[in-house]
Amino acid sequence: MGRRSHKQELHKKKVEISQTIYLPRSWDYYERFKQPYFYPFEFSQIEIKQSELGDIKINATLWDTAIVMSKFFELEIGRDGLKGKRIIELGSGVGLLGVVLSLLGADIIITEQKSMHGILEYNVKKNCKDLSKTKVQELWWGDNILDFKPPFDMIVGSDLIYEDHCIDLLLKSLMDLSSFHPKPKSKYSDIIDQLDENGNIPENLLENLKINNDNEEEEENDEEEEEEVEEEEKEEKEDLDEEDRDDLEEDNKKENIYDSNFQYNKEIKKKYKNKKIKEDDEELKGEDYLVSSSLLEPNPDTVIYLGYEHREMNAESIFMNKVNKYFHVETITTKHLNPGFSGVDIRILKMKKIKQQPPQEEKDKEENK
Ligand SMILES: C[S@@+](CC[C@H](N)C(=O)[O-])C[C@H]1O[C@@H](n2cnc3c(N)ncnc32)[C@H](O)[C@@H]1O
């Protein structure tokens, strides 16, 4: 009995692996939209409905990368690597990859723009077995991600690198989702963190608080003194005669002109400098936007799998020029996965966020060299 079931297992494995999936690869969107897509999965198939009402939208069809990535997770990562894992998918489109990961046992949040949720939810409900562990939610890249409650074991995305202006937004979301997020601190968080198990303030902390309190009182006294000086100056000014007052106003005017000129020159210099940097290096454009996300502490347990078709698009080179600055990247090729995939070059980037040095620490390091 045991032997037979082992044989059956082997046979099952052979059947699964020998299925050849040919990629649709049709750029005739009308043809592509008409039919649902059938993805062979284990002894059955997953049916993915495409565009609603036959409208042509880039996100309303299934892209080849999603099919190849689904096969990659099935064959190379497998159930053992996915069961119970907390995963988030970005830009799911019609949802094949999310559905496959859900069927392989993951606990997954499938995200997309709201306008796609109708068709996406339809495909999820039709194919997923455990809807308590498979959620569809809205996520615009670059938006606040705290509602998704990181940490995640995995972040996945297929065919998301195609629009130049979205690259920074995508990188920001990937960084935010693969980081630890400090709890928002209240004025008393530090004190609360140090209370003993009975909720009492330890002796040394009490002493510190007393010292700080004395300092605060001193500061308050200084402020009072400053206010008194200002009041005296005001009174003196009121006692001046007409002529003295005119002179004083003239001096003030000059000082203001000088100040605003100085301010103006500074602004111009800043603008000129920024413009020059942009001209010299287009890449720096969105950099400011990414800095705060890059400084968040990386979560070492989060792995990102991002699939794309290598077709030398501008967005691909922009992405590749930036990604190594923020992530450790390993490239996985996929042609071997299935005979039907041999005609395309779909690659999967396996990424982990890099720990960035805050600017001051970097500066100190430079100085110590
Ligand atoms: C080429 S489709 C890929 C869809 C799906 N992953 C697949 O491979 O079949 C790109 C997806 O990214 C989504 N997308 C593009 N820009 C986005 C943004 N800024 N925020 C959220 N989603 C976005 C689109 O709605 C679309 O579904």
From TrEMBL:
<feature type="region of interest" description="Disordered">
    <location>
        <begin position="203"/>
        <end position="259"/>
    </location>
</feature>
<keyword id="KW-0472">Membrane</keyword>
<keyword id="KW-1133">Transmembrane helix</keyword>
<feature type="compositionally biased region" description="Acidic residues">
    <location>
        <begin position="214"/>
        <end position="250"/>
    </location>
</feature>
<feature type="compositionally biased region" description="Low complexity">
    <location>
        <begin position="203"/>
        <end position="212"/>
    </location>
</feature>
<dbReference type="Pfam" id="PF10294">
    <property type="entry name" value="Methyltransf_16"/>
</dbReference>
<dbReference type="GO" id="GO:0008276">
    <property type="term" value="F:protein methyltransferase activity"/>
</dbReference>
<dbReference type="InterPro" id="IPR029063">
    <property type="entry name" value="SAM-dependent_MTases_sf"/>
</dbReference>
<keyword id="KW-0812">Transmembrane</keyword>
<dbReference type="GO" id="GO:0005829">
    <property type="term" value="C:cytosol"/>
</dbReference>
<dbReference type="InterPro" id="IPR019410">
    <property type="entry name" value="Methyltransf_16"/>
</dbReference>
<protein>
    <submittedName>
        <fullName>Uncharacterized protein</fullName>
    </submittedName>
</protein>
<feature type="transmembrane region" description="Helical">
    <location>
        <begin position="87"/>
        <end position="110"/>
    </location>
</feature>
<dbReference type="GO" id="GO:0032991">
    <property type="term" value="C:protein-containing complex"/>
</dbReference>
